[in-house]
Each structure stands twice: as C-alpha cells, then as structure tokens.
Amino acid sequence: MNPIQSLREAWNALSKEEKTAAGVLGAIDTAAKGIALWDLARTDSKKLRGPKWLWTSVIGAVNTIGWLSYFIVGKKY
Questions:
Q1: What is the pLDDT of residue 63?
Q2: Residues with Cβ < 8 Å from 5, sequence gap 6 or more?
Q3: What are phi and psi of 44, to 5 degrees?
Q4: Is there a contact between 36 and 67 (Cβ–Cβ < 8 Å)?
Q5: Residue numbers of the domain that contains 16
Q6: pTM attached to this predicted model
Q7: Is pLDDT at 43 greater than 90 in this prediction?
Q8: Phi, psi of 75 (to 5 degrees)
Q9: Where do the Cardiolipin synthase N-terminal domain residues begin and end (predicted)?
Q10: Mean pLDDT, range 59-76, rounded to an integer
Q11: For residues 4 and 12, what is the distance between their CA atoms, to the nearest angstrom?
C-alpha cells in the first residue's frame, strides 16, 4: 500500500467531527504561521535572537513549533 492510499484510508476512517477539528486546527496553524511571517518581515533585526533568514526557515519548515518558537524564543520583547 502506498503512503497516499494509507493517508486517504486514515482520513476516511475519521468521523465528521474529527475531520472538522482537523480542518479548524489546520486553519489556525496556517493563520498563525502567516502572522509570524508577517511579523518577522516588519520586525527590526535588532529585536530578534538570530538572523531573519533563519527564522523564516524555522517558521516555514517546522509547522506549529516553528511559529511558536519564533514568538517565544526568537523575538525580544
């Protein structure tokens, strides 16, 4: 069985409520990633722990933990 088929079967096994929850959580995660990237673009480099290119990669590549770590660790308040 290929990975796509496995994912499709797992998705089809979810209830309507579970699919709705997954969609809502996915939308929240995507919106938070967008907000983090928007904030990063407008933040002065002096107010960051590390270079912008690094935080762009972390936010973009490391789903929920990426944008959370940017706001908790990467940004100086």
A1: 83
A2: none
A3: -65, 140
A4: yes
A5: 3-73
A6: 0.83
A7: yes
A8: -100, 130
A9: 35-74
A10: 94
A11: 12
Please say whether the dihedral angle defined by the alpha carbons of residues 59, 71, 69 and 32, taken in this order, is positive or negative: negative
Q: How many domains, the chain? A: 1
Q: Region 50-62: what's the mean pLDDT?
A: 95
* CB atoms inside a 10 Å sphere around CB 59: 25
List Cβ neighbours of 35 (8 Å cut-off, separation of 6 or more). Answer: 67
Calpha distance 52→46 (Å, rounded): 10
Describe the chain by its helix, strand, coil percentages, rounded to 5: 80, 5, 15
